[in-house]
Write a structure and sequence with these properties.
alpha+beta; Beta-Lactamase; Helix Hairpins; 4 domains; rod-shaped
Length: 467
């Protein structure tokens, strides 16, 4: 359950219970009892009704007496001047006779309280001159509460109080959860590479713990951005500075090769191989630094046939797959998209060569490309039968220079930059790249990017009937 729902339901349930408790206590145990009597029970009116009921009793009996009484009560008793109970509802408490004797002696009505019950005793003289005492239980908590539950007004009051409490709880929950939700969204943006992400673009004015957390989080994000920018600048500067010495080394090697032409010099060949590796590494570092900075290589968006692009990549990779004694297979959809051709080619090629490099001899590497079911994305899947990657490292393999052991060491021929470049290249296409281990063994790398259809020249020209 989300934190918002937990906070809201906790506050709302507590509020409802509090409202129910207050309503129950106010109904069962009124704080201002005399005022409640004046509002709900009128002694003079009750005495008049009881006098008429006594006259009906003398004429027609106890049944007529009970039906004649209109006063609100929970229990009604009629006693004669000797304390004998003439009419009763339920079991008559023994002290009712004493109350009847008291009011007959004094000639005045009186209230008496017994626990949570309130009892009204009233002397009555009928038209025949006989004297009686009526005892009425005007407040009995359980019956009163049950009567309230069957009244529409009680439920309307409870519904209104519940609605108001729900609105207050929603506002309070949003006040507590919104900064946390904003922090989570900012953390996701930071994780995706947006180093400019902040929890609040403006100054956080909250002075509570959540406000302090937001300010500390933004300070941390700013420090991370500073460190990452410095790191990228350092890599780019070092790579750029290495370019000129490497160029001179290649020229020197060419001169040495010319001097030793016709001679088999193993040391010279070794230097040339290592220099080529270093040049390749510097070129990849420069490309990665540019991609991380959001700079696209010197090319523009163009129409790209995915099938032709993948077939061209496979044709170039056939030599390497033949050396590894494996083959590339798969199905490729014929779809044309708007993309950076060389950048997209390098991304798919890096993943495919990585799959070939770690596939065992005699295995098959599959390169499949298709359009998603909703026709909004292009999906490229590359599957190998290699050793796979430990589950905790599936996200880390797209970081520069990251290697896993024991299947992917530096002596395998890679630089540790291919998947990182592929990730950044697909990111420039507003797509994503992910890896997961196959159940039968091997690694599945999925590349997803939006299906942007190129605009034809006919669509760009104004219609003849236009202006």
């Amino acid at each position: 359950m989300k934190l918002f729902l937990r906070i809201f339901l906790s506050f709302w349930l507590a509020t409802i219970l509090m409202i129910a408790a207050v309503l129950s206590v106010s109904e069962l145990f009124p704080l201002s009892f005399p005022a409640d009597h004046e509002r709900l029970f009128d002694p003079e009116l009750a005495a008049s009704d009881l006098t008429n009921a006594v006259d009906a009793y003398e004429r027609q009996g106890a049944t007529e007496f009970l039906s004649y009484v209109t006063v609100r009560h929970s229990a009604l008793y009629l006693l004669d001047q000797d304390g004998k109970v003439l009419v009763k509802e339920g079991v008559t408490p023994p002290f009712y006779s004493e109350m009847a004797a008291t009011v007959l002696q004094t000639g005045h009505s009186e209230f008496s309280r017994l626990g949570s019950h309130v009892i009204f005793a009233c002397p009555i003289r009928s038209t025949t001159g006989r004297r009686y005492a009526a005892v009425v239980t005007i407040f009995e908590p359980l019956k009163r509460m049950l009567n309230r539950l069957f009244r529409l007004r009680f439920w309307l009051n409870l519904a209104a109080a519940t609605l108001v409490s729900a609105l207050v709880c929603i506002c309070l929950s949003l006040y507590l959860v919104r900064p946390i939700t904003r922090l989570r969204a900012t953390a996701q943006r930071l994780a995706s590479g947006d180093l400019d992400a902040r929890s609040s673009p403006h100054r956080v004015v909250r002075r509570d713990e959540l406000g302090d957390l937001a300010r500390d989080f933004d300070a941390m994000a700013a420090h991370i951005q500073l460190l990452m920018t410095a790191q990228r600048r350092f890599v780019a500067d070092v790579s750029h500075e290495l370019g000129a010495p490497l160029t001179r080394m290649h020229l020197a090697l060419a001169l040495l090769r010319r001097q030793f032409s016709g001679k088999n010099n193993g040391e010279l060949e070794r230097i040339e191989r290592e220099t080529d590796k270093l040049s390749n590494l510097v070129q990849q570092l420069l490309l990665l630094a540019g991609l991380e900075a959001g700079a696209c290589p010197a090319e523009t968006l163009a129409s790209v046939s995915i099938r032709k692009l993948c077939e061209s990549i496979i044709e170039d990779a056939n030599f390497e797959s033949a050396q590894a004694n494996c083959r590339v297979a798969g199905s490729r959809a014929d779809v044309v998209v708007l993309a950076y051709p060389q950048l997209l080619r390098r991304a798919i090629d890096n993943v495919l060569r990585n799959a070939i490099r770690y596939s065992p001899a005699g295995s098959e590497v599959c390169l499949d490309c298709r359009v998603s079911d909703n026709a909004e994305n292009v999906i490229v899947e590359i599957l190998d039968c290699g050793p796979g990657v430990p589950e905790p490292m599936l996200l880390d393999i797209f970081r520069p220079f990251f290697r896993t052991a024991p299947g992917r060491e530096s002596d395998s021929g890679g630089t540790g930059l291919g998947l990182a470049i592929a990730s950044e290249a697909i990111g420039l296409h507003e797509g994503s790249i992910a890896a997961q281990n196959r159940k039968g063994g091997g690694l599945l790398v999925t590349i997803t990017f939006p299906l942007r259809m190129p605009v034809s020249e006919n669509e760009l020209q104004p219609s003849a009937t236009g202006a």
